[in-house]
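Batch manifest, entry 17 of 40.
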Amino acid sequence: MENNTSQEQRFVEEPRVEDPKPDESQPKLEEPKQEAVAQPDEEPQPEQPKPDEEPDEGRKPEEPEEEPGSQLTMILVLTVIGATVGSGLTMGYNIGVCNNPQEFIIDFIEKTSDDRDSYKAGMSRNAAQNVFAFAVSIFCITAPIGALGGSIFAQRFGRKSCLLWNNFFLLASVLFQSTCVEAKAYELFIIGRAFAGINTGVNAAVCPMYLSEISPTKIRGAVGGCFQLSVVIGILVSQILGFNSIIGGKDSWPWLFAVILLFGAVQVGALWCCPESPYFLYIQRGDQEESRRALQRLRGRKADVSSEMNTIQQEDKKLKSEPEVKYRDLVDVRHLRKPLVLSLMTMVAQQLSGINAIMYYSSPIFESALDEKTVVEKPDAPKYLVAAVGAWNLVCTIVTMPLIDRAGRKTLMLAGLGCMASAALIAALMLGGVATSEGQECRGIVRENDASNAIAITMVFVYVGGFAIGPGPIPWLIVPELFSAGARSKAVAVSTTTNWLANAAVAYLFPVLQGAMCGWVFLVFVATCVGFFLYFLFFLPEVKGLTFVQIQALFDDRRRQSSRPNLRRDDLQPILENDKSPANES
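Output type: structure tokens
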């Protein structure tokens, strides 16, 4: 406890220096009294500068916030495209690219082992499957390494620079994975997946942070949500290209891992002429002029960026009045611990909601839901349904983008979790008696028939739609919003690492639970969705339309008496009115 208290004091001592300021200003309180007496005689004087000075000065803090927020400039669009194509699109593609050619990759591993050990029995089919599973899982193991390393690089050298240099990991992954067949070495495929994980970890940590810092306040939700949109597009592209009739066949599957190089090329070409984050340039690099130029390019030549520059300046002053944030401070310091807990909960909710289990194992789920006749006559029907799920996920994500800044983050998160819980419950009832593997004995309360199968498949689509509404885009968006520039990169790194660990846990545990519970495994997701729904209902604040400084005030006990983060927007009003004050009572 003493250790935590000392950590808190590091962040409390500096603001206390401001306490004498109101005392120094007390003599000035007598002057307004004299002016108040003279005001009746001087009433005509303030009316003369009205057209030129006072009304304009009074409106300047409000009008610029509307103009930049309502304009979508070409350079901002180019920056968002460049950042997301090489980051989110790459991440989604890497997640889904191994699904369709899975059997061909396992065949390659088994054949390569047999050719090497021709005088022995070679590798069994089961062993080859384990090697493939390891190659897939190493992607989730190296992703947290990329997230931690990427956050450090982005904090020192810039968000844009980090995304550009990250393409070297992308290039390495492409070279190893696409040439493994020619080299007759499945080890190259494993190494390539490891590099792909590092590349994806960096993208997941840095890109959402970069988008949140370059976007206007009023459309920050829509811009930040573009990351999840690009992830969904990447998954769908990998599913479509992975069909046997395209480039997912027995001899052409290595080309699937070379296509991703095009995404990196687009990112390098687009970001090369785009500005760095204004927050990084002002706060980390200390270059105010370059920060203003970058912000002016993003908002347009005629846009007034004075209000946004003032916001960046306020955050810079706040950071300089406090010690440098360390990883330990995220846990020890209360006003950093609160948003950290919320960030971790949103990331864990995204994975424990069960979406990746549906994506990873949707094909066998559809095979179980479809009747045997359909599976025999149309063996590719489950794959087409999987692609249809990806397309539906994309449509729902596109519809959600404009709603993020209108309905709010909390509203969409709750709506998505509620929708997923309801769909998972109905799916469990329909699939409870359906076996997903040979020899599995399952008992359900609904007899399997065409109607129950149709309802189960429909519920999978509803489930994915609920994910696209809230748990999909909101975590990537809200985590960078909850922290100041000094703590943002570290908090994003910790949150992203937690996301990947939860992803790996679901990937390993779901098959085990499915084997033991059959279709009733969906009840696990019902419980997790309901639990997270209740948590966010009481503890997640609504931050739409707020600047970074205003959001941080929600969690700062030095500026509020309340220690709970479940605040209403009305609770923030006193803080916003006194935001320019040197000190606050709370």
